[in-house]
Amino acid sequence: MLENYSFNYSLTTNSGKHLILFLHGFMGNIYEFDRVIQLLKDDFSYLVIDLPGHGNTQVLGADEYYTIQRTAESIIGLIDKLNITKCYLVGYSMGGRLALYLTIHFPQYFSKVILESASPGLATETERLERIKRDAQIAKKLARSLSKAGFALFLSNWYSQPIFGSIKHHPEFKIMLESRLQNNPLDLVKSLQFMGNGNQPSLWDKLTHNQIPLLLLVGENDAKFIDINYKMVQICPVAQMKIIGKSAHNIHWENTSDFVYHLKEFFQQ
Questions:
Q1: What does the pLDDT look like over 58-104, one tens digit per residue?
Q2: pLDDT for 3-19, tens place per residue?
Q3: How far is the C-alpha of 246 from the C-alpha of 26, rounded, in Å?
Q4: Distance between CA 139 and CA 242 in Å, rounded?
Q5: Rounded to an integer, what distance in angstroms lies between the CA atom of residue 46 and that of residue 258?
Q6: What is the CATH number of domain 5-122+201-268?
Q7: Ranges of each domain in the chain
Q8: How far apart are CA 99 and CA 93, in angstroms?
């Protein structure tokens, strides 16, 4: 246990193998990357974490401990507690924004980083204020979705958004839905309120000075993030971008095999 947090995490150590820290997205949990880890088998060691507001991690302090700044500091605290000096880092969506924040502010801990469907945040104050308003509306819907049926309906509507492409037609979508249903809607509200994109600092300017190699993965059916990540590559010399076929926002779920291929190629080169 760390001050202000009780983290739920799982550490799998394979002797002599480099460790990957995986950070899930909004409404995910420590099982988010299970399919990826199963394909990787014994190639790496693994650390997975329930982020604040998700799974079985508890925030013991005030609401400020849901913010990206406090969350990043706490993850570094956990890494130190586990005697991890350096590792690879993979972050998806919200976890990708957190991964980029960690990379920029704590670069000594990470040798290579993969950002999946992620961004450096919103560049202008106007964009951030608009996003805060939108997130507040989503939070209200979440707060009213306390029954399992109500939460399931919220999730069904959530994954109908264009950025998720045809994920609802994935043969194992129901499995993903059941995993999401393990979260507490009221805890998710806290995450959205304090770690939503509108409340996160813009990292665009800092990205230009980053020296840690980045692999940016985007799905071919996620036009919004293809555009964002293309702009990221233009300003960050150590970043490279791959567009993954047969996927939209959630690449590691829709096209796990290609995701694993690019992960291994990047981390093992």
A1: 999 999 999 999 999 999 999 999 999 999 999 999 999 999 999 99
A2: 999 999 999 999 999 99
A3: 22
A4: 33
A5: 19
A6: 3.40.50.1820
A7: 5-122+201-268
A8: 9
